[in-house]
Amino acid sequence: MSTETRRVRNHIDGEFREAADGRTSEVIDPTTGTPYTTAPLSGAADVDAAMAAAEAAFPAWRDTTPATRQLALLRIADAFERHADELLATECRDTGKPLELTREEELPPMLEQIRFFAGAARMLEGKSAGEYMAGLTSFVRREPVGVCAQVVPWNYPLMMAVWKFAPALAAGNTVVIKPSDTTPASLSHAAELLAEILPRGVFNVVCGDRDTGRLMVEHPTPAMVSITGSVRAGTEVATSAAADLKRVHLELGGKAPCVVFDDADLGAAVEGIRDAGFFNAGQDCTAASRVLVHASRYDEFVEALTKAAAEVRTGDVADPDCFYGPLNNADHLAKVSGFVERLPAHARVTTGGQRVGERGYFYAPTVVADCAQDDEIVQREVFGPVISVQRFTDEEEAVAFANGVEYGLASSVWTKDHARAMRMSRALDFGCVWINTHIPLVGEMPHGGFKKSGYGKDLSAYGLEDYTRVKHVMTAL
């Protein structure tokens, strides 16, 4: 992996800029816990400039043909593929993700998702024109909403940016997007590639902290705000956006239940849940973080998962044998550690439960057994490499336990009984139900949750439609 440190800058109206007032923030390498570069800490002047650029660019971009937008997105995907080594090096420097695993698991879907939205740009559908009143013909137009303010999280900085800018651009919107202050480098780097393809002002990157994001949400220009983040952040955004009735697209937290029935293939369930629980250090809102196991197989499952988890390695970016890297930052390490430190007496840590090393933010793969439904570790999102396990006795109790949290993003069912799987897929109150697998996503299918996991869909044609508005046109014959 290249050790070159790239300069992180804002990208506004086709130009790379520092913050207008010169402020910066340190970017910390999570594998060492030490600063490795700085990024602009943008304020009101920077947000104003980006919004003005996006607003000025919108009419011309809106009026491009779908074929033109498709070609631009295809060229973006090709540019990402050509510059994959540089993008991955930047992404992994910011996040501490294992380089080769990121190349295998994140780059291909990222490219596929951009290319999906390139095709979807030419496939927007609506009701057919018709005479619903005598002498009058009606039809429906789908139009872009305008300028979109987008905020990207730190767990998948580049992929989550793709989930946001690709459908927005495909639909004909212009974008002002902010990376997390802890992982700004890959999106700033990507802006160099998009600048060679898109007209000035269509795509703008503003780096900064929560206050910068707040300025974007409160700004009068955007017609839509889209964030991926915590429930707290989503509530603040929705409240702020309500003041001038902006559209809001929220992809928030999750606490995915994995329901393992007595007839499940236990080996497959253990392997699938282990991988989906610890991938990206569990820093995934769909992570297999909460396992419900039928009482008759409970002890067997806990023993097998404990053994499998103990074999998982966390390590440095360049370590080809590690499965996940560090947690994102010092505050998050303290948060994850706190969940385990506060466990009630009836819960037991069967493996892990501690920080790994004294340098960086590494945490051991952890399994917590004998959890109760009202335990904090069951009810709240840990967002780390920690899997809780609890018993259930029958299907009714499994549904009650699975649904008994405030989140509703993703879930999985492990059983050989097709009828049971279908009943569970209907009963589980989550935006995604996997059966005998957990965590795969495809560009053609929607991703998004219920309850406090937010609203709106990423990926799929539904994701594209979220970035459009519907207009009825009626003409006299």
TrEMBL record:
Keywords noted in UniProt: NAD, Oxidoreductase
SUPFAM superfamilies xrefs: ALDH-like (SSF53720)
Protein name: Gamma-aminobutyraldehyde dehydrogenase
Organism: Streptomyces triticirhizae
GO molecular function annotation: oxidoreductase activity, acting on the aldehyde or oxo group of donors, NAD or NADP as acceptor
Active site location: 251
Pfam families reported for this sequence: Aldedh
Statement: the UniProt record of this protein carries the keyword NAD: yes
Family: Belongs to the aldehyde dehydrogenase family.
Location of the Aldehyde dehydrogenase domain: 19-473
Listed NCBIfam families: PRK13473.1
